Amino acid sequence: MVTSKRAPRSRPWRSSSALPLRPAKAWQSTRDTETGRIALALPSPTTPGGRFRPKAFSGEVVPFRTTAFREGHDRIGVHVRLYSPSGDESLHRLSALNDGFDRWATLIAPTEQGVWRFRFEAFADDFATWEHAADLKIAAGVDAALMREIGAQLFDRAVAERSRPVAQRRVLTDAAARLRDIGVSDADALEIVRDPAIAEFFAQRPLASLVTIGELQELLVERERAGVGAWYEFFPRSEGARRLKDGTVKSGTFRTAAKRLPGVAAMGFEVLYLPPIHPIGRLNRKGRNNTLDAQPGDPGSPWAIGTTEGGHDTVHPELGTLADFRAFVRAAGALGIEVALDLALQAAPDHPWVAEHPEWFTTLPDGSIAYAENPPKKYQDIYPVNFDNDPEGIKAEVLRVVRLWISQGVKTFRVDNPHTKPLQFWEWLIATVNAEDPDVVFLAEAFTRPAPMQALAMAGFQQSYSYFTWRNTKAELEEFLGWIANDTADFMRPNLFVNTPDILTEYLQFGGRPGYKVRAAIAATASPLYGVYAGYELYENVARPGSEENIDNEKFEYKFRDWGGAVDRGESLAPYLTRLNEIRREHPALRQRRNFSAHWSDDDAILVYSKHLAADVSPTGRSDTIIVVANVDPHSVRQTMVHLDTRIWGVRPGDAFEVEDLVTGDHWTWSDHNFVRLDAFHEPVHILHVKES
């Protein structure tokens, strides 16, 4: 039983390595060295440079790791001491990874939201040192009497610890006496050395000396939705839009869009992201397919925010009112869906900011205001904000806008192109908002270079778009998925959107329906965060020539879709997406992001990976293992051998185990080497659940 200084109603963590709580009595070193008596280095979780806190979400299984070693061959042990935000203190033992790099680790799932503190403690493990030496020497008949006396003295020390349970002290008292008894043979003494019960006593309560205490570190634990969620994106103006008899279109509203919410909920999506819902500029409005000559009735791009009706703090009048928006948010919440709102810090030429605060923009030598560019793309309908002319004024206005939408029920913001704004600004804004409401989540739409993308995550963004859409081959996916599960996992949470209004990759353009299945299955199983833009389930795959965007793009026009009819005709991916989201809800291993393990196949188009969650860190108290085998070539039938490291989920190599395909319901008996046949035109992906024996 784990004791603590405070007794919360339940433990704010899950772990199998917890120990009885004891204070650390540090070995007193001189103050003229940086190194403690036992070397401790490279603690993690951490961030590059250590300037920002590493982070996790509630229930995320976090590897706590450090490097620890000492001179010679004597054994050491390592603990991590955790302090929860509410004051619970706990002690956890690390295991040696035996990787040749003196790394030690344990897995802990913090569940309490807030700032956790932790520190590593290394110590000379006197029992382990004696056990190792005594096992060798007594068996060899070398210094047996000496080793027996050393062991007896160690047991005497343990018995003197008043905190040690009485039953243990009785056993150790008897063991010490037997080691000293000359009538007890060395063979019998060796049984004491090898007694697993005694070893467990000292694993739980080690005899520690030369204790070295590492520096106090911090870990920010955020709410679960910051790291787990199935996202869906739709344009509310398209949901319920009607073409009138005269050929014009009447926009959908929040009220008509609310009729689509049950369909989104039925597919199992948990977050609904809305593109900007504000008035759309009329000056330089874009027409269909991003043309410069908008025609009467063209609705314009929602990202060209602001006109005479208002700006970022206003709802587009064709969508309804603020009251209608609040009703929409409530209706979504009643179905278990959280609404995410776009935060795009830019302005249409007729945005009120342009007239009231021209200093917030860049004025060119000819007196005109610079519009946005991302060569070769040009955005004549958008003025980017210049953050340097009046930074305090801009900060105050953006904070006011964010607070307004929080007051309307919004807890999540998808931020448009944050890498085109100062990093310092985002660090300030997110810290300010989260200090007031730690539940607010910011997603960075930052398709940019690794350095700024990762810097945005460290500066506070809870989620980020990523390079996933362009990682399509087996080799690319193995590298990418391993990278997000390991290299950046302490600070960055990629949201694996399969498509966006801006992105229709060649893989989807030419991969047909199998390609859509493959991408959705990998995104939904490889990451606890993934997203789908509306139309994906209808296989909308026709691009504007020479681009990676849908033709007749919804950014510039209304879309009319027959959701129900497509399902009835068997022409919708919605049933498959529904099943994927059911699998995610039923299997907690898929709601983790650091447990990705790549395996092997003999075919360069067959991707194999697993996600395992041990029982002691699982919210269900039961282990959970998923194996995914995907044919990433959507134009072929592939058959090959796959090779698994079954030790990851506790099965010895060569032993058989049962699996169930969670998509088809098929059952097979597998081992570490298995034949697979994946027909891209039937079922291109196995999602296998390993049955508990």
Using brief descriptors, characterize the structure shown.
eight-stranded parallel beta sheet; 693 residues; 35 strands; disordered N terminus; 16 helices; 27% helix; alpha+beta; elongated; seven-stranded mixed beta sheet
Could you please describe the fold and organization of this structure?
This protein is of the alpha+beta class. The protein has 16 helices and 35 strands. The strands form 8 sheets. Strands 24-23-22-17-16-13-26-25 form an 8-stranded parallel beta sheet. It is elongated, with a radius of gyration of 30 Å.
Short description:
The chain has 693 residues and is of the alpha+beta class.
* Relative strand content: 15-25%
Given as residue ranges, the uncertain stretches (5+ residues, pLDDT < 50) are 1-8
- Helix/sheet category: alpha+beta
- Helix coverage percent of residues? 25-40%
- The backbone outline, from C-alpha atoms, is elongated
Strand order of the largest sheet: 24-23-22-17-16-13-26-25
Q: Could you describe the largest sheet, including whether it forms a barrel? A: 8 strands, parallel
Number of strands: 35
Q: Would you tell me the overall average pLDDT?
A: 96
Counted by DSSP, the helix tally is 16
* Span of the ends, CA to CA: 28 Å
Computed CA radius of gyration, to the nearest angstrom: 30 Å
